[in-house]
């Protein structure tokens, strides 16, 4: 970390750079917060009559289009991009890697303000990473680092060297850490920006620019703090980070929507806003200048009704994300996160070893089966053991009606517990199919033959297959399989780090250590002799890992309790119906 004088000088150079490039800090300023948060945005006055706190011209944003137009990188990148060899994110990470190493980069005042290390698991020490063993994040981090290292060695390293030589620099050496840094800068700071079509495709370059492919898809979104109306129309799908099991919100990197093109990019200044569940500001795009007086700009807008207190931090929301996603992408967690979730999945490779795997695979394909599901903490509010009655009673009625409609002939009665079942029916349908016995499989085939005929004149629809599976199987087999999956998950979580109570004890010890009097700080002299504090404070990365894994254990325990209770009710009702 730079000394205070150097840090102050860097901040001054950055603020001057912002001003020279047209940014306006109207009712805020940027300053260093602390070692865990880095810099943040703070209110400088309680009088922002129009609510506009900060304005940044979009010309200052780092986007894939800027990379393609860059005098140094543009030619190489356009060739690779048009051939489909790279996607938008590769362009961004390549740009950041090169600019970090360029001696006379015009982006230096901005890049010098960015963190040099990060809190996501890619930056953990070997010992810190071991704290994640048994969690989804542990395997995902291993896969991601392996993938990034392969990309670096296979494409990035030589390309960066070539570009630096073209820039007249034959001395600078590129390392994997430079590329890892660029990757982390992108994931922690990029926004999914709704750019005006006229900004992305100026009329003069319309033919040339439209020849570039706009179909590059992403694996995850970076929707930091956009207002609700901006989010509408963007979060149009869910997808996964390629190569691992971390589930994050998905959106296209460059998806054209009428007069708007959604593009991921970095917006210097805006990207210094930290996250808070109760955001005090949102960001929006002003295409015409009608709000800010600056056409084609992004601005920070106050989201609070009353005036800001002077020197109060202005935070945005990165979205409703669980700790798994927050730690994986941004390097922090929220203790007792209300948006936490548990991912449960059935391994695709395990299907080959189950009885009648070929027939079941065909049924799963016909149903477009979901092999995994996200169990959000909020689902527990509607379960058997909810602490308080659910606020939205309408959902219960809809669920009962939906389940009734799945009955093929009305012979299978709607379960009495259906309104308390917290597990998504899409996933339960998958588990019903996998757990199906031979007689149930025969019944499903017979029911579907009634519809499509013995010659298979047509393929059954998804809803028809689901209905047949429900009629033949009910819930018992699926719930038993779900209980087994949750038991396995809990076993994996506890194998290396113990129980939920063990994690709670570690966190309570840390809270006590943090509050130790100064006399007991490691290495201080106490009572005339050199003493060493027996309780060394754990690293921030270790603390985040424990908070995350404890949350996973807690959710597994609670959802296992729900599944076991539902299973007992299902078995009881099956027994009663048979008698």
List the helices and strands and how they pair.
Blueprint: H1 4-20, E1 24-25, E2 28-34, E3 38-43, E4 52-57, H2 64-69, H3 74-82, H4 88-101, H5 108-111, H6 126-130, H7 136-166, H8 176-189, E5 191-196, H9 197-200, H10 206-210, H11 228-231, E6 237-240, E7 247-250, E8 255-257, E9 260-265, E10 281-286, E11 297-302, H12 323-329, E12 341-345, H13 357-366, E13 372-376, H14 394-406, H15 425-434, H16 438-452, H17 462-473, H18 476-497, H19 500-514, E14 525-526, E15 529-530, H20 540-578
Antiparallel strand pairs: 1-4, 2-3, 4-11, 5-9, 6-7, 8-9, 10-11, 12-13, 14-15
What does this structure look like?
The protein is of the alpha+beta class and 579 residues long. It has two domains: 4-196 and 260-313, set domain protein methyltransferase, domain 1, CATH 3.90.1410; 340-390 and 398-515 and 537-578, no CATH class. Helix content is 44%, strand content 12%. A four-stranded antiparallel beta sheet has the order 1-4-11-10, with no helix packed on it. A hairpin with a 2-residue loop joins strand 14 (525-526) and strand 15. Helix 4 packs across helix 8 (176-189) and helix 16 packs antiparallel against helix 17 (462-473). Residues 204-221, 226-244, 249-253, 400-406 and 516-534 have low confidence and may be disordered.
